Amino acid sequence: MAAMIIDGRRIAEEIKAEVHLATQALSQTRGITPGLAFILVGDNPSSEVYVRSKGKACQELGFHSVTEHRSANISESELLELIATFNADPAIHGLLVQLPLPPHINEARVIEAIDYRKDVDGFHPVNVGRLVLGLDCLKPCTPAGVQELLTRSGIDPAGKHVVVAGRSNIVGKPVVNLLMQKQPGANAVVTVVHTGARDIAPYVAQGDIVIAAIGRPKAITGAMLKKGCVVIDVGINRVPDATKKSGTRLVGDVDFDSACEVASAITPVPGGVGLMTIAMLMKNTLRAAEGKVYR
Question: Global pTM?
Answer without folding.
Answer: 0.94
